[in-house]
Structure formats: C-alpha cells, structure tokens
Amino acid sequence: MKRLLIILACLWLPFWTSAQGGYGDALRNSTTFHDYLRAPALSSVELSPNGRWLTGVKRNHEGIFVFVSDLDNPQAQTVDLPFDESTFVNWVEWANDDWLITSVTVYGTFDGQIYTRAGLNYYTFSGFETMPIPVTRLYLLRRDGSGVQRVFEGVKSLEKRNLNLGRIVSFLPNDPDHFLVAATLRGDLDLFRVQVSTGAHERIGVGKKGTIGWYADINGEPALRVDANRRGTRYTYYGRQDRPNGRTSWKRLKSVRADERAETIKQSTEFRPLSPGAVTGTYYVAARPAGEPTTGIHLYDFTTDTYVRPIRVDPDRDIEDALINPESYEYLGSRYYEDLLKTEFTDQTMQAHMDGLSGMFETAVNIDWTDSSRDGKRWLVYASGPQEPGTYYVYDVENAHIRNYGSAFPNLSPYRLSPVEIVKYRARDGLEITGYLTMPKGVGDGVIPPVVVMPHGGPEMRDTITFDPLAQILAGNGYAVFQPNFRGSSGYGLEFADAGRRQWGKAMQHDIEDGFAHLIAAGKADPSNACIFGYSYGGYAALAAATMTPDLFKCVIAASGPSDLLEMLNWVRDEDGSRSDEYEYWTRHIGDPRRDRDELAAHSPARLAQYVKAPVLMIHGHEDAVVPVEQSSLMVEALNEAGKSVEFVELYRSGHSHRMAGDQRKEMEAIIGFLDSHLAVDPQIWSFSGE
Fold first, then answer.
1. For residues 243 and 585, what is the distance between their CA atoms, to the nearest angstrom?
2. How many domains are there within the chain?
3. How much is the average pLDDT of 257-265?
4. Region 16-39 average pLDDT
5. 602-to-60, 394, 544, 608 alpha-carbon distances in Å
6. Helix axes 565-576 and 581-589, enclosed angle (nearest 10)
7. Pair (653, 521) in one structural domain
8. pLDDT for res 262
9. Are residues 374 and 504 in the same domain?
C-alpha cells in the first residue's frame, strides 16, 4: 500500500550534482565534497501494490535509469530504462501493478539551448539569457518500458503555460486507472483527473491566482485547496463546501507559516493535512489545536472546521506524521523524532517486526517504513544515520527475512563517516537543552578537534540524529560539529517553542553559548579553536555571536540570515501587509517595531558591527524570497565601514535554501576554505587502522 504523496506546486526544484561532476579538493578523511553532495545512486524506490515488483531511479557512470525488478524471481534480469544526457529523473511511482508514472526535468534556455547534466554541474551565472530553466513533465509507461506517453502531450493550453507539469496530488489507490495532477490553466492552478491507460484528462477543480496545491478526499474529489502569499511563506487552507443547490464553494480554514528548509516531520506544525479519513469530509491532520501543549495526530472535519477527535497525542513531544492505509484509510501508527526517528504501530505484530529491524544495526540508524504491499506481507524500509548514508531493504514479514537491495550512496564507506553523540546540558536559567555533537571519525585519545557550532534555522525547526551531509563534510575535514536545539526549537512542545518568542539575541543565543561552554567544560572543545556557522536563523545567531560575544569564536559564517531586525520586519510588512498573518507571526516571534524599536535595534548585528573582532564570511542566494539578500548586504556594508574582515559570496541562481550545482560547489569551497584559514586542524587527528 503506497503512502499518500502530496506535492505542492513548486517550480524551483532542489538540485543534486550529477554523477559525472566532481569537486577539486579532497577532504582530510580521503573523501570529497562530491561524495556527500552527489545525486543518490539509488532513489525513489517503490513496491508495486501486489508486492512483486520493485521500481526506482538508478544513477551510475553510464547515466540515469528507471529500473524494474521482479522480487519473486531474483534471477530474472532487471529491466533498465535509460534516459539521455539532458534528462533528470526526479521520481518514479506505481500507478498500478502494470503501469508506472515518472517525473523528468530538462534544463534549457529561452532560445532553445538544452543543458546536459555535466554542463549544468559546471554552469556559472553569466546572464539571464543563458540561465537554465527547469521544465518538468510526467510520463506514463508500462512495466516493461513500452507504451510511453507524455501526460498532457499536445495540450497547448497546458504545455505552453506550465514549466512544471509534474505536480501529483494523489495516485488514487482505490482507482488504479486514474491519478490526480495539478496544472496551471488560465493563470490559476487547477486539479485534473488523468486516466493511466490512455492519458485522457478532465478538470475537476478550479484554483485561484494564489493556489499552490490540492488535497483529495476518499472519493478522489478535491477536498482542500492551498493558497500561498506572494513570497510562498504562508499557506492558507480552504475546505470544499457542497451546497444544496449542487454548487461548490470554498471555506477558509487555517493559515499557517510555511518553511522550505526542513523535512515536514522536523517542522513546528500548527496544521498540516496528512491523508483522507475513512468518512467523507474528514482528514487526518498533524495539528496543535488551541490550548493544546503539543502537536499531535487528529481527525479533522473540513466541512465544519472542527477537530473530531485526537488520534495520537503525547503531552511531552510533538507527533507530526502518521501512517495511514491509503486504501482503507485506517490509522496504522505514527512517526516522530525523539533523537532518532521512532515509528509506532497500533498493531503489536507489526511493531514487533519494526523493533526487530531496529535492533539489527549496531550504530544509530533511523528505520523508515517507506512502503508495503497491499497484503502487508512485504515491506520496503530505508535505513539511514550518521554512519549509514542510506540503504534500501526488502523485508519478508512472514519469514522475518531481510534483503539488502542497495545503497543510495555506495561511494561513502561507513568507515569514513563520523558518529554523533547526544549532548544534554542546562542553560544558565536551568532549562534542559539537547544538542548533537558530530566528532571526526577516528579522533585519537586526548585530541580535541576544532569545533564548528552550527545552530539550525527556523527557528521553529530542530536537528536530529541523522545523515547530515554538511555535518559529515565538516567532520570529514577534521572539525567537530555541535548542533544545539535551543529554546524555540520544534519537537519539544508549545511551552519550549514559546520560550524562544522575542528572545532573538537573548535567551536563544544564551542557549547556544551555554552549549559551547558545556563542551569546553567536558574537554570536548578548545575555546581558542572554534567557529560559529548557521543558515537562516542560524545565520542571525552567528552574527549575534560576532557582535554580542565578539571574543567567543575565532571566525563566523552567516548564510541567508537576517542582520537588521527592524529592517527585516519592515520588509515583511511591505511585502505581506501590516495586517497579514505572516507579519503578525514575525512580530510575535521577534518583536513589534513600534513598541520594541530600541530593543530590536540593540539586537541587530548590522547596527553593532563596530564590536566585531572575528573574520566573517557572508553567504546569500540572490533569489531569496524568505530573507532578502539585502540583509547580508547591510551587514557587509556595516563591517566594511567599521574596517572589519569580511568576505561575501553571493549565489546568483539560488534562493533561501535551494542551491543549483555551480552555486553549491562555490558555496562549499568558500566554507571549507574559510574554516581552514582560521581554525587549526592537527594533521594527525585521525587514527584509522584500516578498512
């Protein structure tokens, strides 16, 4: 049974480097940047509904392939369907046991030039006329690779107006000959039902100018419409209302802040639809109803905007994802993070199998139950963790037998990857904080490596024990990486999140400082050999450290972060309106520019540049719609005027978090080069004794 897939409308795709590309300099642990940042060799692996067939995307030195394997006949040859040098395969899914749906992207220019994957990997911005534009389409094909057809092929009203026609809304598991896809028609994002076997389509939902996504009900009809503000930072959900006269209207239900950086399970969730409920008009949602201390799984009636009943709620932690049978819409269990990913099934037999799988691994590993056959006898699971970059396993439930199907990153040896340890400490006011310390693999006894303190963005997000490519790159070059979940982080309930309100540069900053002090006291950090580095809110925290505790760190890296809180709030007000939900959120979280002007100015790093002592590296995407690039420009200008050491790397083709390949390479080279210039790494730091 396939888990429900909801893809909101987004033209700017996350980008991995191609397998042909590479970075120049190796890291000190004999790996390279490219080993961590390359596209996975194996991805989008899915079981057919009957559990016999496995499909996915495979990348190797020969190119990109969609493969199909017969699990009942392991000796049978795997079918590999190749794609040319200009095509990126985003994902593949089963429409039914016989047909596949795959999403592909080609990058070209307005004058018709098409980029190869290798060419994109080395592209650098030289003008908009040569800038690669992604064009995404869906293809239908039979299991043996025959019968290939492009969805909406020849429909000029759709193909000429949509760069992205790959926005699946539902695979309709109870209607195997149809699926739902969103596409722009006459300026708005509409919902279409497409027939698998013929490609025929009909429009079943009409969006508005700001519509970015849809959710379907148990009957495959539009249930929820999602609209966004102009910057895409706030979502408003509307529920379908069926009137007695046969007409349909849309009722405004919830307005929530969107965050593009995190996995949804790691975000603070006020309201997020997960799956249709078993009764028409209901939906399973991850939500935190008014007065509740944590996010939980609830059954929600979108026709009346009421919560029917709680399904899974924990008073001490946020539960933000559910496992739902997509055919019966029965609640099967929940997924959430403590430190590692935890999966809880309601069925004790299923839980026993999951516990057995978790016990197989000696190191810290997240076991993600990604797919199951319709009868539940065959599972697909994905194992990942700090020293396990990602491996797919096929599990035979009846025989309790597991088969390693393949690694997503075969070039990364677990032997070279760095372990993560949990760090518990008390902030100066007594609040308990959890953080994670990635130590370079094989550090000799008594050796204290240089430390990079790396607070996360959000700030209502969190870090967990997982395979973190950036932390592993830094550890692979000899740096310990400390990631504190300071107050204001998600995952620990509303009270912990609220403790961070209006604490920018204050209590949240103290939590980061106190975590570093804890490491020093524990003999795990050298106070004279550490840097602070962060993205988004983490970028602000890095600049706050540079200006408010200027003697604490030897160097500072701030990426995509605010530097002037007053100017940032003024920009949000101008962009979204003084009465908008988004502006209200930020004034509640940071402060009110009218009432708190002096306090906000006193905690704005761009106004405190004269206090900076450490060298600063600023990084920002030119197309950032969350924190404008002008925020970094303000800081750079202030530092230059104060005569301070500053470097600025502007990424002309990137946004707040998404990076294109050339920009990604440029960014990583700047980060590693800057750290190497200011932190001392003992060349004998490792004591490897052989593979």
1. 34
2. 3
3. 53
4. 68
5. 53, 56, 10, 8
6. 160
7. yes
8. 44
9. no
